[in-house]
Design goal:
The complex is a heterodimer of chains A (about 230) and B (about 425). By secondary structure, chain A is α/β, with parallel strands linked by helices. Chain A has one domain (about 30-55, about 70-220): Rossmann fold (3-Layer(aba) Sandwich), CATH 3.40.50. Helix content of chain A is about 35%, strand content about 25%. In chain A, the strands form two sheets. A six-stranded mixed β-sheet of chain A has the order 6-7-8-3-9-10, sandwiched between helices. A four-stranded antiparallel β-sheet of chain A has the order 2-1-4-5, covered by helices on one side. Chain A is globular, with a radius of gyration of 17 Å. With about 425 residues, chain B is α+β, with helices and mostly antiparallel strands. Chain B has 13 helices and 14 strands. Chain B has helices spanning about 5-15, 20-55, 85-95, 145-150, 160-165, 200-205, 210-220, 240-255, 270-310, 315-320, 325-365, 375-405, 405-410, and strands at about 60-65, 85, 100-110, 115, 120, 125, 135-140, 155-160, 175-180, 185-195, 205-210, 225, 225-230, 265. In chain B, β9 and β10 (about 185-195) form a beta hairpin. In chain B, α2 packs antiparallel against α9 (about 270-310) and α3 (about 85-95) packs across α8. The chains are: A alpha/beta (about 230), B alpha+beta (about 425). The interface of A and B includes residues 49, 98 and 110 of A.
Chain lengths: ~230, ~425
């Protein structure tokens, strides 16, 4: 269970303080497939960064399972990210000088897992996303959809509690987008929580629940449990 | 502790960024290369010039007389005063404890010198046994002049290597005779010069030595001396004794104490010191320039590391998002910087010592002004350590900067 209690976050630029999140209360059950929608500036990226422990929040509480994620050191945050979270980004964020399997295996490097085992596991996950024969290719040699599959394999390799996807289909055409969302659905079916930020309705419709953000608040009337 | 994975990660990064790596390494490589080459060149020059002295005594002085230019004690100017055994004796009596070796000399004018059908013209000198301690000569065969040759005025000679080559091309000269001015002299020894100055070597090796007493007799100039060389006890400076010795001669021959011409001398020690002073200057220059270029190299590394961190902002952001701790980022950047400076420095060291070694082979022992260049290994290794330390220090700032990159911002950075 992921639980946010009255999360607030503001940015100060110069003399202006911009309140981005104005008290977010949110629960995401384990194994849920959730999308977060909202116009730009609604705070959805900030929310995702807080969920991903990539950013701090000013007040409130964030529970990742039993763990209170608050005032962590950089090292603690890095460990939590590594063990519990997987990330998928709009621009894929693969390391361009590493091959597909090396990219997939990178999170395991920070768990100090030996190289051979890293490779074995990376290949297994590449097979899982249908890119086994592309294992030795560099990201630049892959199509956008293939790169995103590599990124998804990378997010899965640590068997995280939750995958956070930031506009995962933003850079892809609609056919590829749907196959990527299909892949997320399959991953979710294995019991991994998936949280996906998007501004495309058809993408959001493929998730179980849509959370609408507006001006740093969750719109309560839009909260629909178990959308079909 | 050797972390295989970490190094593999570093090798991969380096291998896949060849240009960046090359540029980083070049500065360091050049710095250490210049330092070592300069040191080698400096020492080669020094060895070359010092080598010209060979084994010639550094604490020697030469003394001779010339026509006087000032009248003194009722005597007119323009007199020539012949040095004598008596002068030598008087100097030894007065300065005996300060003088190490005393070697009065006399030329023997000679025409063609022959041995059978072979002939040549060589300079011939009468010498005391002590002269071997002063001149840059080394005995190759037989013996030098000995006191017995002096006492009995024996017609024994020691010949230079060139004399042997000309007069005894296919014969063992020791025990054989050669003819000087019609008289027979027995060869008792052969010597060579150990100076690195080719001209000097040729001059010396084309010389024939006999005892001073023999020379005085055959010249029919008993008791006379052309000039003398003496070395001064190392406890004293040559310059301290120089004037005193000349004063003895001035007194004995009634030469005006301020006459610049009457008694002349040449102080080898001063000459040597002057040359050594020059090399102290060169050495300082080498260090200033060498350390300057090292420093430039190190600053270059720091600079490139800063650029690398900027360039890698996104990569570092991704790594952090995937679970890289600040420590792992710092150690990655630091190790890379240290590794690069070390390898580049080591290659620079190899290349430059290689070139210095080639120079050594090329110039050998015979080069007149340049020979046997050397690099002090302690200095070279010291420079390496400074480089590694500097690599770490200059890597530290960018490394900390890298560790503090916020993943959120880095990932936005397109």
């Amino acid at each position: 269970m992921i639980k946010l209690e009255n999360i607030r976050k503001s940015y100060t630029t110069g003399f202006n303080t911009l309140e981005v999140l104005k008290g977010i209360d949110l629960e995401i059950r384990d194994g849920e497939f959730v999308s977060i929608m909202g116009s730009s500036g609604s705070g959805k990226s900030t929310l995702l960064n807080i969920l991903g422990i990539l950013d701090n929040y000013d007040s409130g509480n964030y529970y990742l399972g039993d763990i209170l994620v608050k005032n962590l050191s950089q090292t603690q945050a890095a460990k939590l990210r590594n063990q519990h979270l997987g990330f998928v980004f709009q621009s894929f964020n693969l390391l361009t000088f590493k091959s597909a399997w090396e990219n997939v295996a990178l999170p395991l490097y920070y768990q100090k897992i030996p190289r051979n085992e890293r490779k074995d596991r990376a290949l297994k996950y590449l097979e899982r996303v249908g890119l086994l024969e592309w294992a030795d290719h560099l990201p630049t040699q892959l199509s956008g959809g293939q790169q995103q599959r590599v990124a998804i394999a990378r997010s899965l390799i640590t068997q995280p509690r939750m995958i956070l996807a930031d506009e995962p289909t933003g850079a892809l055409d609609s056919t590829t987008s749907h196959s990527i969302m299909k892949l997320f659905t399959d991953v979710n079916a294995e019991g991994i929580t998936v949280v996906c930020v998007t501004h495309e309705h058809d993408i959001a419709e493929m998730t179980q629940r849509i959370i609408y953000l507006k001006d740093g608040m969750i719109e309560p009337e839009s909260q629909r449990a178990d959308a079909n | 502790m050797f972390d295989y994975d970490k190094w593999q990660e570093i090798f991969e990064t380096i291998r896949k960024h060849k240009l960046r790596t090359f540029l980083t390494a070049l500065g360091v490589w050049w710095g250490i290369f210049m330092l070592v080459i300069l040191m080698g060149a400096g020492s080669g020059l020094e060895n070359g010039v010092v080598g010209m002295f060979g084994s010639h005594a550094r604490n020697a002085m030469y003394v001779w007389t010339q026509r006087t230019t000032k009248p003194y004690a009722g005597l007119p100017a323009g007199r020539f005063n012949q040095l004598t055994d008596g002068d030598i004796q008087a100097i030894e009596d007065r300065f005996g404890d300060m003088i190490e070796y005393m070697s009065p000399r006399m030329f023997v004018p000679s025409g063609e010198i022959t041995h059978g059908d072979y002939k040549g013209s060589f300079s011939v000198r009468g010498e005391c046994p002590e002269f071997v301690h002063i001149d840059a000569i080394v005995l190759e065969e037989g013996r030098f002049i000995n006191p017995l040759d002096m006492d009995q005025r024996r017609k024994k000679v020691v010949i230079g290597r060139r004399v042997q080559e000309v007069l005894f091309p296919d014969e063992e000269p020791i025990g054989e005779y050669l003819q000087i001015n019609g008289a027979e002299y027995q060869v008792v020894g052969i010597f060579r010069s150990d100076s690195s100055d080719e001209e000097e070597v040729q001059d010396v090796e084309e010389t024939i030595f006999m005892s001073l007493a023999t020379a005085q007799q055959v010249n029919n100039r008993p008791g006379e001396v052309n000039w003398f060389v003496c070395t001064i006890n190392p406890k004293y400076q040559v310059a301290e004794v120089e004037e005193g010795i000349k004063d003895v001669i001035r007194e004995r021959h009634k030469i005006h104490p301020d006459d610049p011409q009457g008694v002349r001398s040449n102080n080898v020690e001063e000459e040597f010191k002057e040359i050594m002073g020059l090399f102290t200057g060169i050495r300082i220059l080498v260090w200033v320039v060498g350390i300057g270029s090292l420093l430039a190299g190190v600053i270059g590394v720091g600079n490139v590391m800063l650029i690398i961190v900027k360039e890698r902002t996104k990569e570092i952001g991704i790594r952090k998002a995937l679970g890289a701790t600040p420590r792992s980022i710092i150690s990655m950047i630091l190790l890379e910087s240290v590794f690069l400076t070390f390898i580049a420095g080591y290659l620079g060291l190899l290349a430059s010592t290689g070139i210095v070694a080639l120079l050594k082979i090329a110039t050998g022992d015979g080069g007149a002004f340049f020979m046997n260049p050397q690099v002090n290994p302690g200095v070279a290794i010291g420079a390496m350590f400074i480089l590694i330390l500097a690599g770490a220090l200059t890597g530290l700032v960018p490394a900390i900067q890298a560790a503090n990159i916020e993943p959120v911002k880095a990932l936005k950075d397109e």
